[in-house]
Design goal:
The radius of gyration is 25 Å and the shape is globular. It is about 30% helix and about 20% strand. By secondary structure, it is α/β, with parallel strands linked by helices.
Amino acid sequence: MAHEGSQTNDGNCADLGKHVFIGPDSQKAEPDCLSRNASLSLLRDLPAGDEPPPEGEAVWELGYTSENLDVPVVIVSSEINPYSKSGGLALVTASLSHELSARGRRTMAVSPMYDCYKGAQLLGSTKLLVFGEQHEVEYFHIWHPVAEGKGVDFIFVHHPSFRRPGGLYYNATEGVEYADNLFRFTLLCLAALDAPVVLEPGGTAYGERVSFIANDWQTALLPLYLTHKMRPQQKFKDARCLFVVHNFGYQGIYPHNKLVPNPHGTIPHIIKNVDIADFGLDGTAAYEHMVYQYPPHERNYDGDDGIVWNLTKGAILTCDRILTVSPGYASEMMTTEGGFRLEELVKQKAFFLNGILNGIDVVTYNPKTDRLLGMNYSIDNVEEGKRHCKVQLQEKVGLDKNVEIVLVAFVGRLTAQKGIDLILDSMDWMMTDTGNNINGHVQFLFLGNGDECYVQAIREQTTKWPGQVSGMVFDPELEHLLYAGSDLLMMPSRYEPCGLPQMCAQRYGTVPIVTLCGGLKDSVIVEPEDEATGFGILPLDIHKYKEVSYKAFETYYLGREQFNAMQRRGLQMNFSWVPRIDEYEKNLDWALGDPPYVR
């Protein structure tokens, strides 16, 4: 990590051209330079100015114009690309900031200052009361222009607690969450609430009439503070808050009580860990909004009352609108399987719930203009272009050069959520030649970082099936070539709020095989057959996985005309952010048109 005053970490690695294999010799490789930027590609170059679309690219017209463009928006996130990133959250918040400002809306993006960022200038400071003590935070500012007279005020909250040598949220070496995360993100929320009134970027404060967009559990306290701290003091009376759920499985749950050793016996004392007053709040309403009690069968020890603080519960109950990253995931949040114990609360607020499918950067991800490809292509020459890029990819990752073989790829975090175990469990079935001219006639590429058990398992597969299986540490440049050179993208996720790789893959004419859940079923068409852009797995088990995979391989080898039609339909899918931002603008207007949800 950079020190104060040193050269910044601006999100780019010094040697992206060096590809690192996950294989027998990988222990000799350089440390993964993207360890703090995880598994999805960096939105490294947000375009400045009014750039024309690439030649032949569709121009998506605005479908909605906000009635409240004069109301600034303040986007609050624990990470934002290209400055900090552990996954798709950083990409989405960067895109929201860029696109909303391009519409003419004054836009501020607030995030922790995990590092020294090039060009960041000290703009101001404030003192905040957190957990009974005064803490001074400094605000650093970067102005990012997006068009003439339009841009984003990036505000970075500087405090020593945000500076860590490991990951953003946990110590990657030890695999444990930082012990002071509750403090860190409480501080972020309070600092973000002060930013529109204490700072004057460009010489003028944003003021109290703003729309906040809080993202995931790390910023879940923001609508709580707006409801229980600011409005009772007659502050931010005209402000509203949208809370965006990117992954409902992570809710910001912290113990209400804790155990301390008992010097006079073996049974420890149970004492209060964090009280409502520690958050700077009082009254039963704030307490009831934040507290959650686990049922008896989920408690950990004798005397455990099961009471915890659930930050996301508080945000769900106090925000003015709940948004999530796909219509399918919005529905799943109201089920026992997808609600993670909060499904009844979400159901009660269903009228204020909307799922908006994320978009992708269609300028960066464009096979017509992608500078990383050996041959650019479009719908008119997709077969020729992908054959050329397949050979380029095979040479790059150490697969046997064979333009006729079906090449399947996985890109993402190597975790159980992504179904990586199903892929590994079926590898012998996939790679063993059984005489049907399909099994054993497959190549597979893994691209990603993640759990060590899966990294080791991939190493074993690359040794067992040399030339057929390759494993690579994530590289954002190689990701582009993967989309262009692969025939099929494998995404057997157990749950997927949105997912971005399946959209990027279709953009390059690669056919996705996905679990029919969350945003995957919203972005991949699997039926009717003459409209399909991919293959769907449901239910997700090893038998169905093999069945659908075989169907995809068979279509590639024996139904090439059908397969090529799927590729061309994928290339024509609209994953631009423009229609998505229309929906965000509508929700901002609806929230401003209603009184605060909790008054």
